[in-house]
Amino acid sequence: MARPHSHGATPPEIVPPKTKSQLLRSFDVADFPKLNGREEDWRFTPLRRLRGLHDSSAEPATAAPKHELSAACEGVTVETVTKADKRIGSVLTPFDRVSAQAFTSASEALMIAVDRNKVVHVPVVVEVKGKGADGASYGHTFIDVGESAEVTVILDHTGSATLADNVEINVGANAHLTVVSIADWDRDSVQLQHQKARIGRDASLKHVAVTLGGDLVRQYLSAEFAGPNASIDAYGLYFAEGGQHLEHRQLVDHGVPDCRSNVNYKGALQDADAHTVWVGDVLIQDVATGTETYEINRNLVLSDGARADSVPNLEIETGEIVSAGHASATGRFDDEQLFYLQSRGIPEDEARRLVVRGFFDDLLRQVPVESLRERLHDAIERRLDRVDA
């Protein structure tokens, strides 16, 4: 961080940032140095596989991913807006170079707006279909949920793409939003995404991230509270196969009193060179009395050569909280569970499948659409078939 010019006077004291993610916030790409892989936030990410998304060297794509709305919903407006829309950038200010590049390079944004007091019973499904991984694309999505509204929004990413994008989520006072974000890309895809949520007084956000496809997918979810008695429940499910790099990071910033956060991510890995990363940061500021928070990450390693990195972090600036905790575990199959199932006549291969199904079951149940749950269940089953092969 640059020191202000003092004209010879004693320079003012520079107050250090509260977290590494608050070192710098800017919409200008030039404010961020080019990444070299030694930065704390990027030390797990193989920069050579980002196809120039991290250093502005990427050639533009000839065909950007296409957004398709499944069906119109009463009380919900879905439209393309320009960057001049005053809502764009009101929730998210980039805190890394890739996010700033995506904000600068995206000429328009998909706006999903829900009327205040509107309860939408049908999920709003936006399909993001990649048209090719040659060349870089940039995107921006804004989900704006009015006061006392209730809605489920599904962002379903498929096809091939090299994509850096931002998603802003604004949850009005007393509103309730469920976001299901699915990365089911073709295997040649790369996606770097920053999702930022602001949650209003007495409001709630349930966020479910499912990552199965792609060569490299890196999602950063950050959240802040705009009033007391707000909450976020963030769930994540990922399954990496040989050569895949799937990375998930969260920053939950408790800056007002009496708010609650819960983070629960689970991953499975199989084959050599499968790599997953989970980093969870929770900041409880000195004014955030009455905070209740917990984060947990569990990883199940199914074969040799796979690697899971898991880093939970808590920064607490006040002792006047309800509770705060974190946990992380990475391991292989539970031998006792396998023995119990095999002792009842279940073959070893089927016993392993049952253990994995049970491992993911509570997170799949967080997906509110039955047809989508079945699709994700089938995708996991296909991967388990390859384990048994």
Automatic annotation (TrEMBL):
One GO term under biological process is: iron-sulfur cluster assembly
Every copy of the SUF system FeS cluster assembly SufBD core domain together lies at 132-359
What the entry lists under SUPFAM superfamilies is as follows: Stabilizer of iron transporter SufD
Its organism's taxonomic lineage begins at: Bacteria, Bacillati, Actinomycetota, Actinomycetes, Glycomycetales
PANTHER family annotated for this entry? Answer: PROTEIN ABCI7, CHLOROPLASTIC (PTHR43575)
Tell me what organism the protein belongs to. Stackebrandtia nassauensis (strain DSM 44728 / CIP 108903 / NRRL B-16338 / NBRC 102104 / LLR-40K-21)
User: Know the name of this protein?
Assistant: FeS assembly protein SufD
Q: Which InterPro entries does UniProt cross-reference here? A: Fe-S_cluster_assembly_SufBD, SUF_FeS_clus_asmbl_SufBD_core, SUF_FeS_clus_asmbl_SufBD_sf, SUF_FeS_clus_asmbl_SufD
Tell me the protein family, please: Belongs to the iron-sulfur cluster assembly SufBD family.
